[in-house]
Amino acid sequence: MRIDYQLTHLNELEAEAIYVLREVASQFEHPALLFSGGKDSIVLVHLSRKAFYPAKIPFPLLHIDTGHNFMETLDFRDRLVSSLQAQLVVGSVQESIDSGRVVEEQGINASRNLLQTVTLLDTIAKNKYDAAIGGARRDEEKARAKERFFSHRDSFGQWDPKNQRPELWYLFNGKKRMGEHFRVFPISNWTEMDIWQYILAEKIDLPSIYFTHERKVFFRDGVWLAAAPFMEMKPTEKIETLQVRCRTVGDISCTGLSLSTADTVEDIIQEIAATRITERGGRYDDKRSDAAMEDRKKEGYF
Amino acid sequence: MKDIFSSKAYLDMELLRFTTAGSVDDGKSTLIGRLLYDSKSIFEDQLDAVKRASIQKGNEHLNLALFTDGLRAEREQGITIDVAYRYFATPKRKFIIADTPGHIQYTRNMVTGASTANAAIVLIDARNGVIEQTYRHAYLASLLGIPHIIVCINKMDLMDYRQDVFLNIAGDFQKFADQVFPKTDIRFIPISALHGDNVVKPSMNMPWFNEGTLLQVLETIPISQDHDLVHPRFPVQYVIRPESDKYHDYRGYAGRVAGGFFRPGDQIIVLPSHLQSEVVSIDTFNGPLKETYPPMSITLTIKDDLDISRGDMIVSASDLPTESSYIDIMICWMNPRPPQFDVRYVLKHTTREVRCIVKEVDYVLNINTLEKITTNKTIKMNDIARVHLQTTQPLFIDPYTSNRITGSLILIDESTNETVAAGMIL
Prior knowledge:
The structure holds two protein chains of two kinds. Chain A is α/β, with parallel strands linked by helices.
């Protein structure tokens, strides 16, 4: 039994995240919240609402759109933005391709995941954002385990993991030069299970793709991927229709689907409690190498 | 595993943050790997990756230390460069481990990891017993105000699991602790991280020890009194003014309670103005609260229309902090560039930001012998020293030993924007 005046772990994590969000609003002039339509960024939006209640969220939501989205995610995004009367800014990877800023990957494993970094940094520079709030968690991946709450990015948007500022107590140092910016991660200390328990406790709405549904899928390198017109397939790969759900939500080209019949948050919690594969184990973008995330993060990835 | 999470019990768990301290070969990474592995917090894909890497490196056993690998350079050089955070949970508690490197920049990293910890695990190699570095680790843990220290005497397998070895080492440590930090709660556990004795599973090799495994201790040490519940302190972080029709005149002071309790009707004083008022409500998105305490993030509204902004502090009218521009601290210097005495630094304390100069150095501490050096007062990176700061405006402070939030500060070098020092107020 808990003794009085001791918060539960979810309440403590929530209080910590709200504190971090209020620090962002206080220390930066033009922050933005990176919104992907995934559960972590949805939880961030919920926490932001709580942090500034009864005022509106004092920063825009920024979506980096690869153009390869699950439609359900976009619908969800637009509904959420209008219900919060929030401002939405979209950075388009397609525009970066069309304007010649980046060249699209070709071939079987082509993904727009990497290209997002250029669009993200361009959008941050164009709108003069000095802080981008992200939903990354330290438990997701080994490079992320080293992240600070306030993570400095140089004028090229790069992360220098070997030379990070020490971060003590809850005294966050958001000082920077012109052209530099910060990435801020209010839910650094949350695990996948914490996120789901919080979604359950707070009754947070999610896009339907997190729950079981029928979808046309194919199998590649141990991962089920969604069939879509822009997904090039090998001759040996066959499309099947199966009951699946997303465990993480990203660009269609890199989001692995899990075979599941879970159709409530409680079911999903049961499934996660029993599962023996990490969340990002189904992420095709992390399978490129052992240091895939570290390399992308250094260049300015989410 | 399924049953653990099916009940509402999970929603009622507590959070324990702990840090680990040990020298290079004391087996720190192996211990963390063992904790994660035996508490079933390692997933199949992580296990497969570590199995492959163990074989590649020619390791005889599954190399548990590899579970805590991080950056590419760390894997290549087999070292840890920076603090990494790890997570695991049991039905009783969720744990956050601040995993601090054993050698490079040791003091800086340990101070960082310890600053938010409720407990510290200090590792001792049973073959070497208490050595100079053990004193250093324990001293830093106590300096950072960690209320619970768990001394793990590791590699008991190499000493034939002998009770006298354990008792001698524990006795040596206790003698030191009685002198330097008599109030800290200290536990001793004989373990073998490599074989798993007394980490998660009770040891069959040490039937003479029955005071619980490391995990049992982590699950049960009392943490509800770790916050300052006595002195009401509320640093104002952000002012909420909705400027909407519905909340036209709303003015709320948002922040995280740093100490004590606040309830509607409480008489308060706002610092630095010293104007008195009364708490009207404690607001949250889920509705108003009857009381609030650390570490809750809430919004206070007060009776009078006062000029209050970020950096001010709302405190109980009958319990004021010290107000001073002359601050006596233990400093930990964290930057290769030593402190400059003619340069102004930015000082951050709670939500307040002022400027300061390092006025004078009392002594530099020899962190291995705890000797106070007054002959040569040069402060270098990773040094601990007692210094006095002169600030441009007063701070509202409590001793660090009474409140870790209102008793702590950092210094920032304005020319590089780097955080260069951490300070604990005396």
